[in-house]
């Protein structure tokens, strides 16, 4: 059933005849007549009584409310898409890892909200592998966290926010000087869960010296790793940005041989919906300001 058939039928009823309906829809009268006839043929009923005046048949009276409801729903859908395209409505699902390289995510959300007050935002967190899985499944629109080129998928785009590097941290009461990872090879370590990117980096670092790291404590975030090391629960390798901000005191060691840390990046689909596209534009502006 074609939409134009419903539009022509409703216009004939509303305007009181085929001639006025044709003028209302800016179509030729034969086209209006043909649309209604095709609609009647498809439905298998007569919708209009045609004499000196055009009136609804019994079937037409029953069908008219459904035709008008379908047309009204379509118009509402058109209005919604127009507001969606103009970003006067919509929703953006943002997922952020605990590690953001000191990038001001809260400030970004505040700026976006001020510019697009009708667009709602949901914010979730988790480890990078989990969040990228959600992006691939279409459960989130934007992921911010440590992700490199190896994490990209076909149909995604990645923009680097800032670089990161790994450092070794030890308790203040621990070794005063550490020159290589081998110096702490038999120490207890604190790290994220075994499926985390940081744990993979820890294993990679120790693999170079042929030792398996002794992870006695697992925790949920880089900040809590720093707190646990400060509490004398072990050593850790961690992103440098975590120890650059204010927090509990630890010893920081810049030692050679640590693997490269993925840059803090934003990941999204290559062709996002308009609200997400506007969010990414705001994010790129924030990235430029962050780099100054």
From TrEMBL:
Could you tell me which Pfam families the record lists for this protein? HTH_1 (PF00126), LysR_substrate (PF03466)
Ligase among the record's keywords?
no
Q: Which UniProt keywords apply?
A: DNA-binding, Transcription, Transcription regulation
Gene Ontology CC terms = cytosol
Q: Which SUPFAM superfamilies match?
A: Periplasmic binding protein-like II, Winged helix' DNA-binding domain
**Which Gene3D superfamilies does UniProt cross-reference here?**
3.40.190.290, Winged helix-like DNA-binding domain superfamily/Winged helix DNA-binding domain
Q: Which InterPro entries match?
A: HTH-type_LysR_regulators (IPR050950), LysR_HTH_N (IPR000847), LysR_subst-bd (IPR005119), WH-like_DNA-bd_sf (IPR036388), WH_DNA-bd_sf (IPR036390)
Q: Where is the HTH lysR-type domain?
A: 1-57
Which Gene Ontology molecular function entries are recorded, alphabetically? Answer: DNA binding; DNA-binding transcription factor activity
Q: Does the keyword DNA-binding apply?
A: yes
Q: Family membership, please give it.
A: Belongs to the LysR transcriptional regulatory family.
What name appears for this protein in its UniProt entry? LysR family transcriptional regulator
User: What organism is recorded for this protein?
Assistant: Rothia dentocariosa
